[in-house]
Amino acid sequence: MRALKYTIAIIVENKPRVLMRIANLFSRRGFNIDSLVVGATDNLDYSRMTISVDGDEIVLEQVTKQLNKLINVIRVSKLDPDVSVERELAIIKVNAKMESRNEIMQIVSVFRAKVIDVSPNSIIVEVTGSENKVEAMVRLLRQFGIKEMARTGKVSMARGSRVMKV
Amino acid sequence: MSKMSGSEAILECLKREGVDTMFGLPGGVLLPLYDAIYDSDIRHILVRHEQAAAHAADGYARATGRVGVCLATSGPGATNLVTGIATAYMDSAPIVAMTGQVTTELLGRDAFQEADITGITIPVTKHSYLARNASDLPRMFREAFYIARTGRPGPVLIDLPRDVTVNELEFEYPEIDLPGYNPVKKVHKLQIRKAAQAIMGAERPVIYVGGGVKYSDAHEELFELATKANAPVTTTLMGIGCFPEDHPLSLGMLGMHGTKYANYAIQESDLIVAVGARFDDRVTGKIASFAPSAKIVHIDVDPAEIGKNVRVDIPVVGDAKVTLKELAGELSPKPWANWNEKITNWKEGYPLGCAKPDSGPTIKPQFVMEKIYELCPDAVIVTEVGQNQMWAAQFFTHKYPRRFISSGGLGTMGYGFPAAIGAKMGRPDLEVFDIAGDGSFQMNIQELATAVLNDIPVKVIIFNNGVLGMVRQWQTLFYNERYSNTTLDKVPDFVKVAEAYGALGLRATKPSEVEPVLKEAIQSDKPTVVDMVISPDEKVSPMVPAGASLSEILELEG
Question: Which chain A residue shows the shortest CA-CA distance from B151?
C-alpha cells in the first residue's frame, strides 16, 4: 500500500481540551500529523480542523474511526485532493537590499503574492495558494536570505455541492 | 426547579442515575461533598487507598451491569485512581470517577494537591469533564452516566473544583444532547444476511466471543445462535461465562493459555464469527498465521475495532444482543457435523492439564479451582493477575455471565481483591471469591480493613508460591532459570495478617486440607483469607509462547 499524505477535515465542539484530545489520539496511536489547522466555523459553537496525515489507507481508516469516537467530534471527512481545494498562507520576511529588490518584486508578481511590509533592508511577502505553490515561492526566495517565516498550514474543502456542516 | 449547593446537586444526580453504592476516600477539597454524603442514603464505602475505590467500582459494574461510582480527592487521590480507570478502560467497564479539584481560581497555578487529572486521564477515559460552574453539574453527570453505559462502555471522569461543589444552582436535570455521540442502535440488514450466509455455508465455523457479549447481556442470544448453527464457541478471558462451559459446543478459552482444542479449532476453521472481541495479541498469537483459512465475520459495537488488528471479510457494526438475535433469526438449523465430531475428539484427546487428586505432597492449584467449583458452582470468581488468573479461568467451570471478573487488557495486579469487594456489594446473594497470588494480593492487601469494617465477606484464596509466578514461569522457560527479582519468600504470614485486620485467616499446606479449609471459608460469614501453599514450580499450561502461532501451543510440565 502506498504511503501518502491525506487530508482530514473535522468539525469539533468548541469545548475545553478538544485540541488536546485530538493531538493525544494521534500521538498515542502513532499517527503522524503533517499539519494541523484550527479555526472558527460560521457557527460559534463549533470549530473546524484540517489535519494532514502521513500513512496508508489502513491508517487513514483507523484515524477516522478513532476520531469519530471522541465525544466532542461532530463530523470527520476524508478529503480527496483530486476533488477538493486546498489553500495555505505564508508570510515571509526576506532580505531585500536595493540591488535584489527588483528581482524579488518580479517573483512576487509571478506568484501573485503581495508585499505587505517594506523596510530599508527587508520586505515581508504574503503568498497564498496550494502547498506546492508556497513551497516553490519559498525555494525561490531562499537565495536572497529568508530572515523569518510563518505558515498557516493547509485548509481544505471539497469542490462542488458536497457540504460538511453540523 | 429548586436551589441547592453543588454537592447536593451531585448527590441528586447520583440518585437519579440509580446509584446505591459508591467507593471513595475523602480529602481537603472534597469536604463540602463529603459533608453532603453524611446525610445521603447512598452507601459510601470508605477504602484505604484510592486505587481500590476505582477497582471496587469496576468490580461492582462488571458484576451487576450498572455503572460503578468512585470518588477521590484532588492531586494524589486523583492520580491514585488512574490505574483503576485505565483498567476499566481496557476492559470497557462502565464507571464514573469523580475527583476533587482545587478551586477554579487556583487552577493552573500548581496549588496544593493540584493535579491536571482530566489531562492525565485523556488516554484512558471514554470522556471527561472539568466542571467550572455549579450549574454545569446536572448536565455533566447525566451525560457522564449515559456515555459510560451506552455503546462500548467505559470510564468517564468528572473533575470537581471545590467552589463548584459549594456554589448554588437551580437544579434541573436536562435531556441528553450530544451531537457528537451516537452509539449504534440499528444493525445493517444486508451485513446480517451476509454473515448468515457465511455461517450457513461454513463447514468449520467457530464463534469467538469477547466481553462485548457480557456487556450487552447477549448470552441467551449467543446460545440460540450457537445451538441453532451447531457452531462451537470459544471465549476470551473477558467473554468467560457468556457460554456455558459444560455444553458440548463449548471450547473454553482460546489464546496464550487457552485450551488446545480451542486454538486448534481456530487454526483449522473456515469461518470465525467474532462477537464483541478485539483480536488482542494474547488471543491471536502471531497475527500473520492466525486462522489462516478462515473468513472473518466481526460483530462489534465499536466500528474502530473492526479492521484494527485483522482483515475482516464481513464487518457488522452493532450491539451484540440485537445483532445476534437478528443473525439467529436468519439461520436455519444446521446438523451436528464432522467438524463437531473432530472437536469432540480433540476435547477428549487434549483435556486441560493436570488436575491431580487430593494426594501427593503439594497442593495443585488446578485441583483447588475444581474443588471450589464442586463446592460453590454459582460463585462469582474474581481474580488477580498472573498464574492465579489463568488457573481460575481454566479450572473452574464457568457457566454464567458476569461471574468471572478479571483485569484482562491492562493486566492489573492488585485488581482482584478490591474488585471482589465491589462485586460482593453488587451481588450480596452470591459467594464471591478473589483468586489471588501472594504477589498480587499484597498490592491491595490494605483493603482487608475495608472488607472487615463494612462487613463484606469476600473469600480470598491465595495461591501462595512465594514467587511472582507468571514472570518466574517465563524465566524458567525463556531465561535459563535466572530468577531475577521474582522471589517473595513467603513473607508475610497471611493468616496473621488476616487476623490482625479482624478477618478469618486459614491455611492449607497439603492436598488433604484443601476441602476442609475451603468448606470453612465458605461457611465463614467474615472476610476470609486462605493461604493455600503451592509449589513455586507450578506452571500455567498449555501455553503459546509470545509471538508464536496458536498452532505452536505447548504442554508444560509443572
Answer: A69
